[in-house]
Write a structure and sequence with these properties.
With about 270 residues, this protein is α+β, with helices and mostly antiparallel strands. It has eleven helices and ten strands. The longest helix is centred in the middle third of the chain and has 18 residues.
Length: about 270
């Protein structure tokens, strides 16, 4: 079995993957604290790529578009513990704790390489995954509160992220789409992240680009794929997903229809 997932609670899970690689595009609705036990993960955002390995601990902000690629490594499966820091739990925490500095939506990924306090907190969860329904209901809440307290003790600026509960406001649609077109998200999510309803998103998009979202997105993704194939000499199988296409066969068909030749023709020419 390629995937195995065990839960202490809906907010804390132990995930293990044994396949060659697994790719997905996500928009996290909660802040996610992750500890890698083994394997490797690449997180690709609009303007930065993070690579994490065994022992790494990091915090990903909510409402961020990202491509996530998981790999087994060194003969070991990809294995990690993930903790969701939900708005409800954070709001409860900050009713009892004073924030330091102004709360603001900081967008960076926080990395805590093998920090002893966080590692001890997350490592202590491992025995609980075998207990199933025998785990007391309040244990998960205690562990999440412990993790939040440790994060704040390590980096006080993290309050700016965790204590901010605002939803995305209306932002510059053109700038956002130019940075995020390669993420294969629904119009609902693009609208949400730019502070618009779907109808308003489509209307504003037409004004900004004089095109429909689907047509513009397809053309931008094809341009990115063509650049990586022709200039960086990458293979189609390494390009299609990160350019925003769901599968290789669909990518190859759309590419040939648009350019008049298949993607692998660029490799042959080079």
């Amino acid at each position: 079995m390629e995937f195995q997932t065990h839960y202490i609670s809906p907010d804390i899970k132990l995930a293990e993957f044994n396949g060659r690689s697994f790719k997905t595009e996500v928009m996290f609705e909660d802040h996610i604290l992750v500890w890698f036990i083994s394997g490797e993960t690449k997180i690709i955002q609009a303007d930065v790529t993070h690579t994490f390995n065994a022992g790494d601990i990091f915090l990903i902000p909510r409402n961020q578009l990202a491509t996530v690629i998981n790999y087994p490594k060194d003969g070991k499966s990809h294995k990690s513990v993930a903790m969701h820091l939900t708005k409800e739990k954070l709001a409860d925490f900050y009713t009892r704790h004073k924030t330091t500095g102004k709360a603001q939506p900081l967008q960076k990924v926080y990395s805590f390489r093998e920090h002893p306090l966080l590692k001890s907190c997350l490592d202590s969860l491992i025995p609980y995954f075998s207990l199933g329904d025998d785990l007391p209901a309040d244990i998960a809440a205690i562990k999440i509160e412990e993790a939040i307290s440790i994060l704040r003790s390590i980096d006080r600026s993290v309050d700016g992220l965790l204590a901010n509960f605002e939803e995305p406001g209306k932002i510059d649609l053109t700038a956002f789409m130019e940075r995020h077109y390669m993420f294969n998200m629904t119009m609902d999510k693009f609208g949400y992240l730019t502070g618009r309803s779907v109808a308003t998103f489509r209307r504003d998009f037409k004004k900004a680009f004089n095109s429909t979202p689907q047509k513009w997105l397809t053309e931008k993704r094809l341009e990115l794929a063509h650049y990586r194939l022709a200039q960086k000499k990458e293979k189609p199988i390494d390009v299609y997903f990160e350019a925003g296409f769901e599968n290789l066969s669909h990518f190859s068909h759309v590419f040939k229809t648009h350019f008049g030749y298949p993607p692998n023709a660029l490799l042959k020419n080079s």
